[in-house]
Fold each of these.
Amino acid sequence: MAEHEKITMAQAFNQALRDAMTADESVLMFGEDVGALGGVFRVTDGLTAEFGGARCFDTPLAESGIMGFAVGLAMNGMRPVVEMQFDAFAYPAFEQIVSHVAKMRNRTRGALSMPITIRIPYAGGIGGVEHHCDSSEAYYAHTPGLTVVAPATVADAYTLMREAIASPDPVVVLEPKKLYWSKDEVDLDEVQPGIGRAVVRREGTDATLIAYGTSVPIALEAADAAAAEGRSLQVVDVRSIVPFDDETVCAAVRSTGRAVVVAEAPGFASVSSEIVARVTERCFHHLAAPVRRVTGFDIPYPPPKLEHLHLPSVDRVLDAVDTLQWDDV
Amino acid sequence: MPSHDFLPSEQPVQLLDQDGRRVEDPKRAFPSDEDLLRAHEALVVGRRINEQAYALVRQGRLAVYPSSYGQEACEVAAALVLDDQDWLFPTYRDVVSIIGRGVDPVETLTLLKGDWHCGYDPTEHRVAPQTTPLATQLIHAVGVAHAATLRGEDTVVMAMCGDGATSEGDFHEALNFAAVFKAPVVFFVQNNEYAISVPLARQTVAPSLAHKAVGYGMPGERVDGNDVAALLSVLGDAVHAARSGAGPSLVEAHTYRMQAHTNADDATRYRQDDEVAAWQGRDPLLRSKAYLTGRELLTDERTAEIAAKAEAVATVMRDGLMQDVEPVPGDLFEHVHATPTPQLREQAAFLADELSREKVS
Ligand SMILES: Cc1ncc(C[n+]2csc(CCOP(=O)(O)OP(=O)(O)O)c2C)c(N)n1
Ligand SMILES: [Mg+2]
C-alpha cells in the first residue's frame, strides 16, 4: 500500500468539499464565517481562495435564511452545502429543514428534489459553554425525508461527505467536534462503504457494542479494555443513522447474542432507543440478555466542569456489558 | 408620526470628540459633571474587568472570554441609564454591563468559567441570563416590557445585541412586536463592525442599522459608541421616552471590537492590524479622561480613588475565580423539571451509586 500522509478529520471534510466543488460547478458552500476565516473549525479553509467568493461565501447571520436560501438555490439547479456553526445554532433553521427541505420531494411528487448538504458540528466533550455541545440527531432522524450520517473516522469523513453532496436528497452530516483533530493515515481514493451501511470496526464474539459519531472511539477503547480482561467485544459503527443498516447491525448482534448501544445524546426517545427497538424486534430469539444502553442523562447538556459525568465513559460501557446476564448461560 | 421623525441623524451623535473636546448638539442634553465622573469611574472599572478576564483566560481559569475591550462606553452607559426597577437583557459580550448593574462579578463569570450556565439570579438585579443564541433574547425583552405595562409597573427594558445579530429573524420579530404593543423597550445595538470574521457590509446594505427602526414605526438613532457622554445622553433620552409611554426605539452605537471575537479566535485571518490601530486613538477612556481632566474634575485624588475601586473589583474576580469549586454531581439533575421525573430520579441514583463505588475501589 502506498504511504499516505496523516490528516485530521477536519482536513478530510475539507478535502471532500474541495473535490466535490472541483467535480461539480453547481456545488456551493455557504454559511457563517466560512469565507475568509475558513469556518470556526477550519473545515472550509482555503475554499474561497480556490473557488472564489461566488462558490464559497459568508451570508448574513441568519440560519433560517441560510437554509431557506439553500432551498431556493436547489430548486434552481444548485447543489448547496451549508454550515450551521454549532449544533444548537441550527435551531433557527429547523422550520426550513422540517417543513421544506425534508418534505419538498414528497409534496411535489418528486418534481422537486433537495440535493442539500447540511453540515452540523455536533456533540460535546470539548469543554464548550452552553449551546455548543448538543447532540441533536434525534430531531433530524425523526423527520421523514432527511438522510442523517455521523462519521467517526477520518476516512468516513471524506466518503460520507462526498456521498452526502452527491445525494439527490437532503443529508444532515453530523461532524463530531471532539474528533475534528483526530488524525489518521488514509487513502482517500480507497472506496469506503457508502451512506446506508454500517461497518464492523472490531471483531468480537461475546457481545456487540453499537455506536456512532463521538461514541465510536469510546466503544473501541472499551473493547480494548475488555479484551485485557478476557472478554471479546465486537464494535459496530452505525455511520448512517438514516437510512439505518438493519442487516449489518442485526447480523452482528446475532453473532454474539448480546448488545449495548452507546450514544451521548439523552437516552429518552432517542436514536439509541430506536436502535434497541430494531435490534430487539429482529434478534429476539438470538439474545441472551436485554439490549442495554449507555447514553447521556435526560438533562440539558451540562456545563464544562460537569460534562465528564454526563458523557458515556469506558467504565460505564464495561459496567453495562457486565450486566448482560453472563451467569445464566 | 411622519416617518422622517423616526430617522436617525446623518452622523452618529457625538458630544465629546476624539480629543475629549465638547461638541455642541442642540438636540441633545450634555450630561452633568457628576454623571460623567460616575461614567468615567465605570469605564475604568470596566476596562480593568476586561483586562483581568483576559489574564484569567490565560491562566486557564476562564474557559473563554468574549471581551468588550474598546466597547466599554457602551457597556457602562447601558447600565447607568437604567433604574433599579428596569431590566437589562445582555449578550455573552456584556459582562461589564452586568457587573455595572450590581451583579456579583464572580457570579457573572460562572458561565464563562464553566461551573454552571447562568451564575446569578436574574430576578435579583433584573438582569436576564446572558444569551448566546443570537437575537433570541430581544423578543423576551419585549415580553417582559409588555408584562410590566399590563401590571402597571414603571419598568423599561434595555435589550442588547450586536450588529451581526440584527440579521437574525428574531431581531425583526422583536422590533415589530415591540412597536405593535408599544412596549417600553430600548433596543441597543453595539455595532462593533464584525460578527466574528464577517464585516458589517456582509450583513446589511442599509444606510445604517438605526435606519431599520423606521420600517417598524419607531425612532432610530445612531451614536458614537466610544463617546460615553453621547451614549448617556442618547440612551437616557430613549429610556425616558419609553418610560413616558412613547414606546420602543432603536439605538445603534458605532464602535469597534478591539480584540478577537474571543480568545479562541484568530482575527489576523480576516482583518488588518492597521485597521485596528486606527481605532486605538478613539479609545473611550482617553476621551472621557481628557474632558474631565481639562475641566479639572478629575483630580489626582479622584483618579487614585477610581483606580483603587477598579483594583478591588479585579481582586474579587481573581479571588473568586482562582478558587476551584468542587462540582456537585447531583446538580446535573436539579431544576430540569419543577419536580424530577421518575426517570431522572433513577438516573441520579445511578450516578450516585457509580460515584460511591468509584470511591470504594
Ligand atoms: C443563532 C446563533 N447563530 C450563530 C451563533 C454563533 N456566533 C456567536 S457570536 C457570533 C457573531 C455575533 O456577532 P455580533 O452580533 O455582531 O456580536 P459581537 O460578537 O460582535 O458582539 C456568532 C456567529 C450564535 N451564537 N447564535
Ligand atoms: Mg459585532
Note: The two ends of chain A are 44 Å apart (CA to CA).
Amino acid sequence: MKDRTPLLSLRGVKKRFDGFEALRGIDLDIYPGEFVSLLGPSGCGKTTTLRLIAGLDSADEGVILLDGQDISNLPPEKRQVNTVFQQLALFPHMNVEKNVGYGLRMRGEKKEKIAKRVQEMLSLVQLSGLEKRMPSQLSGGQQQRVALARALAVGPRVLLLDEPLSALDLHIRRFMNRELKRLQKESGVTFLYITHDQEEAMNMSDRIALMNAGAFVQVGTPQELYDAPATAFAASFIGQSNLLEGTLREADGERGILTIGNADVPCRLRRPASSGEKWFLCLRPERLRCAAAPEGDFALPAVLREHSFVGGVLRSEAELADGRLLILQRQAEEDAPMTPGQPVFISWNPETAPLVPWEEATHEA
Amino acid sequence: MKRNRRRPESLSLPMQLWMAVFLGLALLYIVGLSLLKSAGDLHVTNEITGENYVRILSGRYAEVLWLSVRLAALTTLISLALGYPFAYIMTRLGPRARVWVLLLVIAPSWTNALIRIYGWKILLYANGPINSLLQTLGIIDRPLKLLYTEGAVLLGMVYAMLPFVILPVYTGIERMDWRRVEAARDLGASPFRAFLTITLPMTLPSLLAACVLTFLPSVGLIFLSDILGGANTVLWGNVVQDELLKSRDLPFAAALSAVLLLLTLIVILLYRRAGGRGEEMVF
Ligand SMILES: Nc1ncnc2c1ncn2[C@@H]1O[C@H](COP(=O)(O)OP(=O)(O)O)[C@@H](O)[C@H]1O
Ligand SMILES: [Mg+2]
C-alpha cells in the first residue's frame, strides 16, 4: 500500500477559531481505494478536518493535496471530493430523484445521463422505487441512503462522511456499517469516514487515524492500534484495557522485567526502553487468564469481585493486592466456576501485552 | 416537524371567540349594510337591494381598482427587490452590526406614520431639498414635479412597506439551515446557483408572507395617496373614504369595502394555495 502515491494528503494543516487551536498541524496520506476512519472523541477536530478537505473552511497553515495537486485554495464546487454531512442536509423541497441528481445537474449533464446515473445510484443504495418521495417522507435510514447516493452520484475521488450514522439506532447503525462497507467495495471509491464510535471504526476501516485535541495520536490498521497502542489515550479509547503502572527493572534487547507493585512480570520491549523508567502495561480483558492456582512463570495474586454475564461472555473484576481493579473477560463455559471473594491468580502471554508510555494523568475513554 | 408543535385547539378558544365577535361579526355587518338602500346622511332604509354593486360595476370604479391593485403590486415588487437583498445581507453581518441595522429598520415606526409621510412631502416639494440639490448640481434647470404624482405615491408606499418585507424575510433566511447551501456548493453549485436552487426556494415561505403583508395594506392605504398623490391619484381607499365622509352614503361605502374584502380573501387563498401557512408572518 505504501508504495503507491497517495490520493489525498494533508501536510501540516492547522486551523484556529478565535485563537483556539482546533487543528494543531495534522499530516495524513490516504491511498486510492482505502477506507480510512477519523476516530476521536467529540470536539477533537474531526468535522473541522473534513470541512477543510471539502473546502467549506480554509486552513490557516498547511496544504491539502488531491492527486498531488494543491487544492487548498479551490472553492468547494471545484474540488473532486463530496460529503455526506452529519445532519445529512438533504434538500427538503426536492424529491429523492432531484436530490440525487442535483450534483449532475449543476455539472450540466444531459437529462438522460442524469436519469440513468440516478437509477444506478438508487439501486446501489437500494432505494429504487422511492424516486418521487420527498425527504420528509423517508425514515432516518432511508434519508441516510439518499445523502449517500447524492454524494456518490457525482463520482467523487474521495467521499467524506461525517458521522453519517450517529442519528440512527444501534442495530440499524450496525446494519448500515456493513452496508457502507459493501458500498465502498462495490464502488471502489476512497472513503474518509468520521466517527467517535471505536467499534464502528474497528469494523469498517482499512486504517484508522486516531485523533485527540486537534492532533493525530496514532495512524494505523485496526489491528496495529489494538495490539500496539501508541499512548495511554489510544489504549483506553480503542477497545477496553487495564493500564498497570510499573517500573522497568531490567531491559535487555526485546526482553524486560517490569515491577508492578511488588510483583515482577516479564514483558516484551517493542521500542527503546531502559531500566528505571516508568511504563504502563496494557492488559486487554479478554487476554487475561484467571486461575485458582498459579500457572506458568508468573502470576499476580488477586481476589475475584463482581461477575456479570454479557452475551455469553463472563465479565469480572479482580482486585490486586494493592487495591487496583482489573477487568477480565472469559468465555462463560470455558473455566471452572469461580465465586466472588475467591483468591485467584492472574496471568497472560507477555507477547500480547504491550507497553505504553507512562503519563501523569490517564484519559478515560 | 413544526406541525407537531400544534397546541391543543381548546387553548386558542378565547382568541377564536374574540376574532369571531370583533372581526367576523363586524365584517358580516359591513356585508349586510352593503345590501341595504341608503337614506342619505349615514342613514339606511331596511329595503334590500343589489344596486350598490351594480353602481360599482358601472362607474369609473374599475379604473380606480385597477390603479390601486397595480400600485400595490408595484409596491410589493419593488419592496421585495429592495428588501430581500437587504435582509440577506443583514443575516451575513456580525451579531453587533445586525442589532444596529435591525434597529434602523424598526426605529422609524416609533414615530407616527403621518408625520413621516409629511417628511417625504417636504422633501418632494418643487422648492424642496431634492430639487434644490439637483439644481445646484446643474443636473436640471427647472424644478421637477415630484409631488402629486403616481411616482410619489409609489415612493411613499415602498417606504412604508419595506419593513414588512425585511422583517419576515430576515427571519426566514435567519432560520434557514446554511448547511444545505454548503451541501449544494459541495455538490458543485456556484454561489449564485446555490442561491437560486437552495436559498431562494427555502426562503420562499417568508417571501410569500412578505408579499401578502405588503400587498394587502398597500391596496387600502388612504392618507398616503392623499398627501403625496393629491387629487391626481385616487385609490380604492380614497373612494371609500369619500363615500363615507363626503357623500355620507353608508351602504355604498360598505359595498366598496366588501370589494376590498373580497380582494383580500382572494390574495389569502392564493397565498394558501402557494403553500403559505402564516407562520412566517410572526416575527
Ligand atoms: N466555527 C467555529 N467557531 C468556533 N469554534 C469552532 C468552530 N467549529 C468548530 N469549533 C471548535 O473546534 C473544535 C473541534 O470541533 P469539531 O471539528 O466540530 O469537532 P468534532 O467533529 O471532532 O466533534 C471544538 O472545540 C469546536 O468547539
Ligand atoms: Mg463533528
Note: Strands of chain B lie at 36-40, 43-48.
Amino acid sequence: MIEFDHVSKHYGRGQDALRDISFELERGGLTFLIGHSGAGKSTLLRMIMPTEHPSKGKVVVNGHDLKSLSGRKLPQYRRSLGVVFQDHQLLADRTVFDNVALPLRVSGFSHRDMGRRVRAALDKVGLLGKERAMPGMLSAGERQRVGVARAVVNRPSVILADEPTGNLDPALSGEIMDLFEQFSQMGACVLIASHDLALVARYQHRLLSLDRGCLLSGGDA
Amino acid sequence: MPNSSSTKNTVSPGGFKHYLREHRQTAGESIDQLWLKPFGSLMTILLIGLSLTLPLALIVVLENGRDLVGSWQGQSTVSLFLSEGLSEPEGLALSKALAARDDVRKLRYLSKAQSLQEFESSSGIAVSLELLGENPLPAVIIVEARNADPAALDALRGELSSLSGVAFAQLDLQWVKRLQAMLQVGVQSAQVMALVFTLVVLFVVMNTLKLLIAQRRSEIDITLLVGGSHAYIRRPFLYLGLWYGLFGGLLAVTLVEAFLWWIEGPIANMASLYDSSFQVRSMPVMLFLQALVFSSLLGVVAAWIEASAHLRRALPR
Ligand SMILES: Nc1ncnc2c1ncn2[C@@H]1O[C@H](COP(=O)(O)OP(=O)(O)OP(=O)(O)O)[C@@H](O)[C@H]1O
Ligand SMILES: [Mg+2]
C-alpha cells in the first residue's frame, strides 16, 4: 500500500534528513514511526502527502508513483489520505464544524451527508457539542482532537498522524489510539509518528525506527 | 469505514445540483468578503470604475459624433444651378433625366420663380421684382444622392457639373470630411486608451487579490492538503474578481451617464444654433451591457491569473 524505495532527502546544505529508506506497509495495519527529535519522522510523512519529493528514490502509494501525480490526480489522491499535523493546522477563523468539514467540502459532499459525518467524527474524538466553537477557544488537546476528526472524517484509506497525542493526557491518548486501531482494522493503512515510547509500547504494532535519517529497524529491504 | 475507492471516485458525491449550490454559496461568501474590508474594496472598485470611465466616455462621445456626421451626410445634397439660358421645359427635361439615374435617390426642381419664393420664405425678405427688374436667381435642381459617402458624393458632383445646362454644381462636404477624420483619430485614441486602462484594471485587481491570497495562504495550503483542486481554490477568488469588475463597471457606466446628462443641455443649445435637431443620446443598452460584461470579465481574468500564479508557487503542489 505504501512503499518507499531507496528514498533519500536532503534539504539545501544541511545533512540528509532521510538516507536510503526502504520499507513497505500493508493495507489494514497500524505502524508507529519512532525516533528522537530531528530524526526525520515529519519529513518521511511529508513524502507521502506529498508536500516534498525525494531527492533520490521513489514513493509509491496505492499504486501511484507520487512524483508523477499531477493535475487532477493529485487532489484525488489526497482525498484518500487523512493527515493529523504536528501543529494541528486548523483554520483559526473557521468554526470547528467548518474545519472538520473541509475535506468533505472539497470532495463535493452534500450538506446533509456533511453534517452527519462531521458530527460522527466529532463524536469519536469526544467533541460533540463543540461544532460552533472557534479553534482559538479550545484547549491544545481539544484542537489536536479536532485535527484528528478532520483527518478521519473522509474515511481515508491512508491515515498519517504526526504526534497526534502530543498534547493529550494518557486517557485521551488511549482513546485516540483506539480510534486509529479501529480504522486500521477496517482496512486503512495507519502510520503514526511519535516519540512517546511509553504509549507506543502499550500497543503491539509494527515499529519503524529512525535515527538521524536512517531506518534502524522495521524496514524490509 | 475506510473508503479506498475514493481515489478512483471522480464524480463528486453531491452531483451537479450540489455543484451549483456550492457555486452560489461561494459567490455569496465572496460578496461577504467584500464587506469584510469595505474600505479596501471600495478603493479597488473606485480605481476600476475611474479607469474604465475615460475610455467608455470617449466611446460614447464618438458614437454620438458618428450619429451627428451621419445626420449631416443624410442631408448631403448636390445643388445644380442651371444656366441662365435654359428654358423651364429644358430644365424639367434635365431633372427628369437625372431622376432616372440609379445613383440619385430624390430630386427637386425649383424654377427661377420657385427659387425666389424659397429665398423669400427662408430669409423673410420680400424681393421687389419691380425694383430688380428681373429675377436674379437661377433655376436649381437639388439632387439627393443614394450613396451618402463623401467620396461618392464628390464624384457625383463632378459628373453633374459637366452636364450641359448646368452652370455649376455645389456640394458642402468639407466639414463632414474633416469631422470624419477627427472621428477616426478619436476612435484610434479610444482604442489605445481602452488598451491602457484595461491593463490598469487588470493590474489593480491582480494587486488586490495578491494581498488577499497572501492573507489566506495557510488556508489555501490546508485546502490543497485535504484534496482541494486548483479549480476549487481559485473559485472564491474568481468570484471576488467578478464582483470587483462588475461593481467597477457599474460605477463607470453611472459616471458616464452622469457626464452625458451634464453635457446634454449645452450640446442641445449648440445644436440649435446650427439649426440641427441633434440630441445627445444616452448610452445604448447594448453598450451598457457590453461594458458590464467586459469589466466583469476583466476582473475574473485578473483573478484567474493571480490565483493560478499563487497555486503554481504554493508549497504543497
Ligand atoms: N524545510 C526544511 N528545510 C531544511 N531542513 C529541514 C526542513 N525540514 C526538516 N529539516 C531538517 O530535517 C531533519 C529532520 O526533520 P523532521 O522535521 O523530519 O524531524 P522530526 O523527526 O519530525 O522531529 P520532531 O520529532 O522534532 O518533529 C532535521 O534535521 C531538520 O532540521
Ligand atoms: Mg516532526
Note: The first helix of chain A runs from residue 41 to 48.
